[in-house]
Amino acid sequence: MDKSEYRDIAPYEGQAVIDAVNRIKAYPKFLENMAEVLYSGNIIKTAWKSHQMKDQIPPLLDKVKSYDDFQRLITAGVFLPTIERNSMTSFTFSGIEHLDKQSSYLFISNHRDIVLDCALLDLALIRSGYPICEMAIGDNLLVNQFTTDMFKLNGGVTVKRNLPMREMYIESLRLSRYFFQLVTEDHKSIWIAQRSGRTKDGIDKTSPSIIKMLYLAMKERKLNFSELVGLCNIVPVAISYQYDPNDINKGREEVYKKLHGTYSKKKYEDLVNMLRGLRRFKGQVHITFGTPLRGEYGSPEDVANEIDRQIHCGYRLWDTNYFSYDYVNVSNRFEDKYADLNTKKFLSRYKDLTSDVRDVVLTTYANPVTMQMQALGL
């Protein structure tokens, strides 16, 4: 694989890694900002941890020679375990035994959090002794040099958005070629979301356009969809959060779109949502790895449907999901599933919202139950 063709979108390599690490070390508030992200709301602890990081992080950065090093030493070594301790009651995963440590995969998951979906997938891979994966991210998140360096040091592959039609097609063709060559020639795994943008309504549906994009570069090779799917080793992944730190602002966005037809993000809104997702309480979090897609697929829609089926069946339903389903549907069908949930406390999270926003938020928690029942034929 000739990486020179993809230098502007691929993760950093070689000297670019060293240069990025040096920029981060020279960034005046790097450690303060990291401590603020990890220990937000506790001024004394933030100051103490920031001071502690001055001894801990720089020696680790000196060892970084690749994005693999950065992910293992910094992200999975320091940041994610801290986020896990501070904002989760548990982090578990299952199904990884279906994967081969010597193989590379195209992981396609539901998309609930801007950065944690893939970061936690990588953490599960690392803890199980599997190679880490690269991750596809929109260029809307690369708001400055610092965030660009952080993403590309974490294996970020840039997806360029808001391009003119012809440029968009050319860029999609190049991205398709990159994904395919990465998995089949470089034997490295990559994560992409099942759709552009996070799911705001709890209905995790794969966009067939994602599969069509993958197929763009393969037309000239005269591969059919089944051959493409087999070569790419597509693995559906379901990630489930007991509590979504961005549930309220997602609900407000959905209501605004229903009223006005469209929603325009404010400057740095994605960055704010990303930080909220890292900092705030998530409760129990689980990742389910599906099985690699095999067999005959006649169209992108067929592939998308199988990805959806595995994600919906693999989604770990929590007490918050079951309670919300019963609340929205005015039933007691699953009351045994949330017997230990303080339902009054859960509802009090949304007491200051308008009724339409509250209904959207609770329906968002309820929808995974509906989708799983449909997938299982219940």
N→C terminal distance: 46 Å
Shape: globular
Class of the domain at 3-12 and 68-77 and 86-316, according to the CATH hierarchy?
Alpha Beta
Average pLDDT, all residues: 91
Order of helices and strands: HHHHEEHEHEHEHHEHHEHHHH
Derived structural class: alpha/beta
Q: Kindly report the spatial arrangement of strands forming the biggest sheet.
A: 1-7-6-2-5-3-4
CATH topology of the domain at 3-12 and 68-77 and 86-316: Glycerol-3-phosphate (1)-acyltransferase
Q: Mind telling me which CATH architecture of the domain at 3-12 and 68-77 and 86-316 this is?
A: 3-Layer(aba) Sandwich
Number of helices: 15
Strand coverage percent: 5-15%
Largest sheet: 7 strands, mixed
Helix content: 40-55%
> What is Rg?
21 Å
**Segments where pLDDT lies below 50 for 5+ residues?**
none
Number of strands: 7
Q: Would you write up a description of this structure?
A:
The protein is of the alpha/beta class and 378 residues long. The chain has a domain at 3-12 and 68-77 and 86-316: Glycerol-3-phosphate (1)-acyltransferase. It has helices at 15-26, 30-38, 43-61, 67-87, 116-127, 145-152, 165-184, 208-216, 225-232, 247-260, 269-279, 300-314, 319-329, 343-348, 355-376, and strands spanning 88-94, 106-109, 133-138, 156-159, 189-193, 234-241, 283-289. Strand 3, helix 6 and strand 4 (156-159) form a beta-alpha-beta unit. The longest helix is centred in the last third of the chain and has 22 residues, at 355-376. It is globular.
